[in-house]
Amino acid sequence: MKKLHPKQLKIFEVLKDHIDNPLSIRDIGRIINENSPGVVYHHIQQLERKGFLKRNLGNSKDYKLLDVPDRLIVFLNKYGNAQCGPEGFFLDDNVIEKIPISSNLLKFPAFEAFIVEAKGDSMYPKINQGDIVIGRKQNYASQNDIIVCAYEEKVLIKKFNIIGIQVFLSSENIKYANIPITEQDDFKIIGVVKNILNYY
Asked: For the domain 73-197, what is the CATH code?
């Protein structure tokens, strides 16, 4: 391992031991016998700076360890439901649960992965109600990529299409019309869908 302060090494080992059940800063301090949350927080920041950890600044229990040997099973963050249709839900920083996934399913670093459960039928038959969708966090997409995106305060799973200079969000189900995206729209790509685990 790279050179770590003894407390950083302890914290890293604690985080690794509890990777399936993330701890708060106070929980970590209690385990390593450190009464000051500020000291624990400082060492967590140092672990991130040294490349051992990637944190979600909006949720102290949402973190990924970056220097853990490859495992057969990885635990991915599952967020709120994503709608395949006209209505959606916020995809926020609150992790609902961690889902065990075979590492063989991922062809990219696990810390870039996230999970949402599909709702609705606009991506049928490719994606069904209740399917588990594994995405890779990124803010761009290529033609015909299936994306998870935020659109007008909704989170949608759609196909990304460009016709001329116009961007459209398309559905697999032909009963749904394309959604044209304009500069005035509140639109953000959250990630690109890499795996679909069918419910049925």
From this structure: 2.10.109.10
Instruction: Indicate where the chain has its CATH 1.10.10.10 domain(s).
Output: 6-65
Note the pTM of the prediction, 2 decimals: 0.64
Where do you find CATH 2.10.109.10 in the chain? 73-197
| Region 156-165 average pLDDT | 93
> What size, in residues, is the chain?
200
User: C-alpha distances in angstroms, 27 versus 39, 42, 165?
Assistant: 13, 15, 51
Average pLDDT over residues 17-27: 80
Query: What architecture (CATH level 2) is domain 6-65?
Result: Orthogonal Bundle (1.10)
Return d(Cα 185, Cα 200) in angstroms, integer.
35
For residue 138, what are its two tokens? 């990124």
Cα-to-chain-centroid distance, residue 57: 14
Q: Please, which pLDDT band fits residue 62 given cuts at 50, 70 and 90? A: confident
Q: Specify which residues 158 forms β-bridges with.
A: 147
Helix (H, G, I), strand (E, B) or coil at 150: strand
Residue with the larger pLDDT of the pair 49 and 67: 49
